[in-house]
Amino acid sequence: MADFTVHILGCGSALPTTRHLASSQVVDLRDKLYMIDCGEGTQLQMRRMRIKFARLNHVFISHLHGDHCFGLPGLVSTLGMLGRNGELWIHGPAAVSEYVDSFLRLFCQGLPFTVRFNPVDASTYGLVMEDRSVSVYSIPLKHRIPCCGYLFVEKQKEPHIIREMVDFYQVPVRELQHIKQGADFVTPDGRVIPNSYLTRPAAPARKFAYCSDTAYFPKMVPYLEGVDLLYHEATFLECDAARARETAHSTARQAATIAKAAGVKKLVVGHYSARYEELAPLKQEADAVFPGTLLAFEGMKLSL
């Protein structure tokens, strides 16, 4: 099966620390790269993690707060210096467009490639983009400004041909693609060989959901049901729940509650408040609801 890997470039929150970098992740699926958020330090982290700039064609911004998008001007400028010529798509709530237009005008004139912006309705669940490898959907979140998460759904692969059966029924090579697409095979004497005799199903399509930043928001649960991996912000501990409500963020326990309700297979939490030097208590609170919760860290690679 082709790799489906999530790279954590940064998992801190708004206030910079020496422990964590601002939010950014890269999804690597079938040799294509998709970036989610682009905080300060993103392109340096790409260098450290040996992520190839040339394979990046889409950037998904969750909302217009600096710790999620201040790295964009530098990244786009670097892509220009590297001689990129293929277009770059930036997806995000409509307000992000003005920011993109301003840094393109001020710092990125004369780029050898085109930057295109795709406005995302942060208030609804809907298809944002798709290609041959993945469909990406917006997930409405609850924050102080329009903000959305993103759901990456791998395109279902074709079933596998059973070579022994194909040889037994003497299926011509020209028919194999039709069979992969679900067709039965009809022999020269008119017998119908069911598709199920000739193929075995491919592994189920995998799903990754990114939800940051958001207050506790149970309405998102239906969009997360059964995902293989959920990244959910866990900015605060329960002892700081009042601060979480005030800033429209979540506690670790709340993130775990969402994961449990959605029946996700694996949960990783991040977007830590700068007030916490030790993260073990965040994991303890999440584990009490969703055992096996993972704490994100810079350089982390998660394979689905």
Structure description:
The chain is an alpha/beta fold. The chain has 2 domains: 4-157 and 203-303, Metallo-beta-lactamase, Chain A, CATH 3.60.15; 160-200, no CATH class. Helices cover 26% and strands 27% of the residues. A 7-stranded mixed beta sheet has the order 6-5-4-3-2-1-18. Strands 7-8-9-14-15-16-17 form a 7-stranded mixed beta sheet, covered by helices on one side. A two-stranded antiparallel sheet has the order 10-13. Helix 10 (252-262) runs parallel beside helix 11. The longest helix has 13 residues, at 95-107.
- Please tell me the overall pLDDT: 95
| Helix and strand element order | EEEHEHHEHEEEEEHHEEHEEHEHHEHEE
Considering DSSP H and I runs of 4 or more, what fraction of the residues is helical? 25-40%
| Assigned CATH superfamily of the largest domain | Ribonuclease Z/Hydroxyacylglutathione hydrolase-like
**CATH fold descriptor of the largest domain:** Metallo-beta-lactamase, Chain A
Report the CATH C-level class of the largest domain: Alpha Beta
Oligomeric grouping of the chains: single chain
Instruction: Work out the helix count.
Output: 11
In whole angstroms, the N-to-C terminal distance is: 10 Å
Spatial shape: globular
Structural class: alpha/beta
